[in-house]
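Final report, Chapter 2: Outcomes

The project's central promise was a pipeline that accepts a single protein chain and returns its three-dimensional structure in a standardized token representation, suitable for archiving and comparison. That pipeline is now operational. To close this chapter, we reproduce one record exactly as it appears in the project archive, with the input sequence first and the structure output second.
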Amino acid sequence: LDFDLYLAQSPLRSDAQLTIMEKATELGVRGVYPVITDNCALNKSVLEKKQEKWQKAMYEASKQCERAKIPTCFEPTTLEEVLEKSFDNILKQFFFVLLFYHLFHR
């Protein structure tokens, strides 16, 4: 890719999240931000334990698709923190920011 692609997403349970990490790696992401949300399937303590497992899955997927650079699985964070960290460097770090969300009407 001619640009750095990052994924920020609310983690799913078990195998589904491992599949996301593998496929994101195969698609060329530079890093994944596990985002803690109100409806997150896992709590923060579980996410912190899973981070190492996800990083290993990304490493294995990198080897399988012969990728030179191994992506990073960042520490679990909130979407606000991801955007605050990058907002200061938005012109340097991000060319495009795509945000998808679902608003529940009650």
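Archive annotation: The chain has four helices and three strands.
This record, like all others produced under the grant, will remain available to the consortium after the project formally closes.
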